[in-house]
């Protein structure tokens, strides 16, 4: 377990076939944090990518230094494994496919301090948030998933399936211990359990842009798993 460094932000970047995206997202994050004076580290956790992502991650670790970039092979769930090595007292979870605008980390930091929130979640469905690059089918799936969740669970947050969030490290650890879901439903359960445990959640509108390179892993199996997970949470919360 890494020793905590107050004020440091640890970014967990799970990757799979992100060779083309990874150098750019790391450069953007490093520049953004450096410009804002925020102490940071980026932890890349690759799930056995066959496209050369691992080699790229190892090169980035050499270029930036292991104090700023740490490359891991996952042992179990990527987030749980990454937390073991995270030294920041705040942890950001985001995608590595450039769908999340890295400069929003500055907004996240401001929002967290503004309300001393345990979690700050990016929302596509509030304020000036939005989604760009999705076809109608994908938009309907996302909107439908959020609508069903709002009706059944009343979680008090507007975007339950988004994956761009900042957590206090100790809060993330407690939520990981409680959550049992995987895949598409995992993000939803994290917010539902947070409310259940009394943690505070703030929201920041974000513009989500569909990935530039690679393909989404969302498919029929993920949708079925989401519906099963939703019903399980409805029955147990």
Can you give a write-up of this model?
Pathway: Protein modification; protein glycosylation. With 237 residues, this protein is an alpha/beta fold. The protein has one domain (5-236): Spore Coat Polysaccharide Biosynthesis Protein SpsA, Chain A (Alpha-Beta Complex), CATH 3.90.550. It contains eight helices and nine strands. It has helices at 22-36, 53-64, 78-85, 104-115, 136-153, 169-178, 186-196, 220-236, and strands spanning 5-15, 40-46, 69-72, 88-93, 119-123, 130-132, 165-168, 201-205, 207-209. The strands form two sheets. The chain has a seven-stranded mixed beta sheet with strand order 3-2-1-4-7-5-8, with helices on both faces. Strands 6-9 form a two-stranded parallel sheet. The radius of gyration is 17 Å and the shape is globular.
């Amino acid at each position: 377990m890494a020793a905590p460094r107050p004020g440091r932000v640890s970014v967990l970047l799970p990757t799979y076939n992100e060779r083309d995206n990874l150098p750019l997202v790391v450069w953007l994050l490093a520049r953004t944090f450096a410009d804002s004076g925020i102490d940071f580290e980026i932890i890349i956790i690759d799930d056995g990518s066959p496209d050369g992502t691992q080699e790229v991650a190892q090169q980035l670790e050499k270029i930036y230094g292991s104090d700023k970039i740490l490359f891991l092979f996952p042992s179990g769930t990527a987030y749980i494994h990454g937390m073991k090595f995270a030294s920041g007292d705040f942890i950001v979870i985001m995608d590595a496919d450039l769908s999340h605008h890295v400069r929003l980390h500055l907004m996240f930091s401001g929002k967290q301090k503004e309300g001393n929130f345990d979690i700050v979640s990016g929302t596509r469905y509030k304020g000036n948030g939005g989604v760009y690059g999705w076809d109608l089918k994908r938009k309907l799936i996302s909107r439908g998933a959020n609508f069903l969740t709002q009706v059944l669970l009343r979680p008090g947050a507007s975007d339950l399936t988004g994956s761009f969030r900042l957590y206090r490290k100790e809060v993330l650890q407690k939520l990981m211990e409680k959550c049992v879901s995987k895949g598409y439903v995992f993000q939803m359960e994290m917010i539902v359990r947070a409310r259940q445990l009394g943690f505070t959640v703030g929201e920041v509108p974000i513009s989500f842009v569909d990935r530039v390179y690679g393909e989404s892993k969302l498919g029929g199996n993920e949708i079925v798993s989401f519906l099963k997970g939703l019903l399980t949470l409805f029955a147990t919360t």
